[in-house]
Amino acid sequence: MKLYLKIWRQSDAASEGKLVDYELDNVIPHMSFLEMMDTLNEQLVLKGDRPVEFDHDCREGICGQCGMMINGQAHGPIANLTTCQLHMREFKDGDTIYVEPFRALAFPIKRDLRVDRSAFDRIIMAGGFVSVNTGQAPEANGIPITHEQAESAFDSAACIGCGACVATCKNSSAALFTSAKISHLAKLPQGKMESRKRVLSMVKQMDEENFGHCSNTEACEVECPQQISVLNIARMNWEYSLSSVLKK
Amino acid sequence: MELNAKIPPGPLKDKWSFYKDHAKLVNPANRKKMDVIVIGTGLAGSAAAASLAEMGYNVKSFCFQDSARRAHSVAAQGGVNAAKNYKNDGDSVYRMFYDTIKGGDFRSREANVYRLAECSAQLIDQAVAQGVPFGREYGGYLNNRSFGGVQVSRTFYARGQTGQQLLLGSYQALMRQVAAKTVKLYTRHEMLDVVVIDGKARGVIVRNLDTGEIERHSAHTVILATGGFGKIYYLSTLAMGCNASAIWRAHKKGALMACPSWTQVHPTSLPQSGDYQSKLTLMSESLRNDGRIWVPLKPSENRKPNDIPESERDYYLERRYPAFGNLAPRDISSRAAKERIDAGFGVGPQRNAVYLDFSKAIKEQGKGRIKEKYGNLFDMYRKITATDAYVEPMMISPAAHFSMGGLWVDYELMTTIPGLFALGEANFADHGANRLGANSLLQACVDGYFIAPYTVSNYLAGEIKSERVPIDHQAFIDAEVQVRAQLSKLLEINGTKTADYFHKTLGKLLYDYCGLSRSKEGLIHAINEIKKLRADFYKDLKVPGDEDEMNGELEKAGRIGDYLEVAELMCLDALTRDESCGAHFREEYQTPEGEALRNDEKFCFVSAWKWRGEGQEELLIPEPLHFENVELAVRSYK
């Protein structure tokens, strides 16, 4: 396959970026999207050009480090997939592909396609944990948790923190990310105790990080590689209202 | 030089208690004055950093990823072992100890392995308290599954994402401490050297990968929890950034490396499909609970798997190892797959795979139950291969996976440099010559949560009077000069080949000569080839850009420069061990049935290697293994 790539190049956060054209021959349908980018970079390096910087690590869809806007869609054209799991068989010979970084005020561009998602870490710091020290834990079977409860908590806990939900949201809202952690912990007896304080503190941090508000378009759920449900956002809103009222 | 593992006295089951009862402590007021550096934020690193910070030490934590949550522990799928005996199937700490020591082909320390089993139950308690959503039965109690190499069900799991869930638990514990300002976290920082002053580890040199800045950090102790280096094979189940640089540079500063050639090749990964490929995705071993492995009876079979009748299939694991069948340990399963593939029975377009078939399990248990157990793995398989494994068998193939070898550590997990600890996959400790499935998450967690807090404190208790070392100390200046020189050297070559070219070439050499099977002739050949490749690397490498900026190619080149040295030591390690044990299979030493043939008389030791300078062959220092509680048996799974 031959591809025409338009890739966002930007030296650093302060510089202006632009789309740069590249042509790439001999792309094989079995290649992953990132392997296609590797091939391009190999050619750039051999020419003495600076290769395209992009985030990636595990390349099996779980570390959450990769993420690009591909033809305007977070992680590309296939729903519920990370960029590293996208394969070139989804494209056709002669296609033009636009490759851009995840864009949000809260995710400043570091270089090319790499963005700074440390805002997510700060949201977790604001309360996305159970306050238990090493050594304090009671016997694991001491508090039974129903099968359904554990499975439901897992569904929320499966978030990989890639930021596709923010990138795809027209408001750049981090509601899906934040609510997934709030729900995961609120659904379990171990996390329930701190849930009121947690929701207020995490939502406050989310707002301070310049994420937008959720306006219920549900676009995030469509792109989420782990299919995190927007019902988590509903639960967050409910927990938030409850906690705000009870606080007074 | 004599190696002293510092095994506590007393009977096996009391050794860890004895250690804890007698370890020196640091009082809370003094802990505030002591600085700890932890490199790596995987399970071992984040667990150690969080636990030590909770105790009151000042911790600095470093990772090369853009968030601590992305360390490669995240990718472990199947589960974590613990001797809880919730299944009432005869499990016990001793049995888990025995399974692990047998699984490692009797090439690990009894005391270490026993402690791993002893601390396992506590880990499950800790993880549940953190909110890890382990799989549960309908009554609300924790569920277990079986893993390879054992006959009990002791594996706890969170669907096929157990590593992710455990890591999120320790990551959240770490972020809680970052918020409390007891940990200062440096993401996108890579350790490039350890600073040794008066024979003790007193700091590190790191590079900020976003800006290229070189930084110096000083502390009273340095903990390396930097994971494994299976990525040295290029095609592996590891993340792209996994590397040996931290432990290798510590090695060159005096820490011994132990058994570096013992690499686990995982039997159930997706096969390679072409030269452009950058990684091999793992399919959890847990799939072997319900999947049956087979190849066609006829070589070069062209029929589709579902068109091949039952009578023309060879379920070779069930045939060769009837007692354990599809749950034979990893080294044995991988070797059996390679044997069939090499004999011409491989399947798939490249004839490099075997089938993993779920049709029987689906017929017996229903698709719904299989989906519940392995849904995300089947989804992942479909995403990568565009094949529905509920309908057609998966195609799998062996891939480099886990480094049993690593920095030599004593019972306290301290390397041969006082004050330098190595935790988790970065060390050689508990797994011997082969690791059992679901023991890696366990070892990383136990090292970080339950062992380091005691042993690091025991060390620091002797350092209370040590002043903080200023970072303008000559040792820091010298280490930084050396690091900068290394970076400049890579940039100045300006040759014609990319870093990836060298990595791929090296990886192929290692797969061919220091992989699933090794021979004297092949290893000697590989050592010569590696030397040539290394010479070519420093003559013909091309790295664009500068050192004082974000430069992914420079990062890669630095790691590959180290790999080219590690690889030579791996081959030397394999060459000098004239026996087969676990993952180390020397073709010259096998039984008539093709099983590994150990030589306990001559090789019942750990090979620890000492760096003697550029261009010099490393020195082998054996640590003899003493077995007082188990008998050295032939490791049979038949």
UniProtKB/TrEMBL annotation, chain A:
Residues 150-179 form the 4Fe-4S ferredoxin-type domain. SUPFAM superfamilies: 2Fe-2S ferredoxin-like (SSF54292), alpha-helical ferredoxin (SSF46548). Signal peptide: none annotated. InterPro entries: 2Fe-2S_ferredoxin-like_sf, 2Fe2S_fd_BS, 4Fe4S_Fe-S-bd, Beta-grasp_dom_sf, Helical_ferredxn, SDH/FRD_Iron-Sulfur, Succ_DH/fum_Rdtase_N. Gene3D superfamilies: 3.10.20.30, Alpha-helical ferredoxin (1.10.1060.10). Pfam families: Fer2_3, Fer4_8. It comes from the Bacteria. This is Succinate dehydrogenase/fumarate reductase iron-sulfur subunit. It comes from Pedobacter panaciterrae.
UniProtKB/TrEMBL annotation, chain B:
Pfam families: FAD_binding_2, Succ_DH_flav_C. Residues 35-441 form the FAD-dependent oxidoreductase 2 FAD-binding domain. This is Fumarate reductase/succinate dehydrogenase flavoprotein subunit. Residues 503-637 form the Fumarate reductase/succinate dehydrogenase flavoprotein-like C-terminal domain. InterPro entries: FAD-dep_OxRdtase_2_FAD-bd, FAD/NAD-bd_sf, Fum_R/Succ_DH_flav-like_C_sf, Fum_Rdtase/Succ_DH_flav-like_C, SdhA/FrdA/AprA, Succ_DH/Fum_Rdt_flav_su, Succ_DH/fumarate_Rdtase_cat_sf. The keyword Oxidoreductase applies. Keywords: Flavoprotein, Oxidoreductase. Its cofactor is FAD. NCBIfam families: PRK07573.1, sdhA_Bsu.
